[in-house]
Amino acid sequence: MGCAFQTNRLSKERIKRLTRIGFVWHLIEETYRRGIEETRRYKKEYGTPNCPSQYITAEGYRLGQWRSKIKMGRKRGTLTPETIRELEALGFDWQRS
C-alpha cells in the first residue's frame, strides 16, 4: 500500500497547502539535491568537491556522510548515469575518501 499522495487520496487543496509550507514529497530526490548543493558550496570554498568523510557544514549538514553514501550507491550500481555524470562534472573523485 502506497502513501496517500502516491495513491491520489489527498485532495488537490491539501496537496497545495502542504506544498506551500515546504512539505517534501520526494525525500530521496530532495536529499540528493541538497547533497549536490552542499558539494557545490564546498567546492567553491575549498576548490574541490571532495570533502573528508567526517565533514559537517557550519549548518550541521553531514556532507561527508552523504558523499560516502553516494560512493556506495555507485559501487552497488544504484546511481543513474545522469547522477554519475553530474558528480563527475563537479570533479567528484570516486576513489578518495
Write a compact overview of the structure shown.
The chain has 4 helices and no strands. With 97 residues, it is an all-alpha fold.
Mean pLDDT: 84
> Helical amount among residues, as a percent range?
40-55%
Distinct helical segment count: 4
Tell me about the largest β-sheet: none
Secondary-structure map:
Layout: H1 12-20, H2 27-46, H3 63-76, H4 81-90
Keywords:
single chain; 97 residues; mainly alpha; 4 helices; globular
Describe the structure in your own words.
The chain has 97 residues and is mostly helical. It has a domain at 49-97. The protein has 4 helices and no strands.
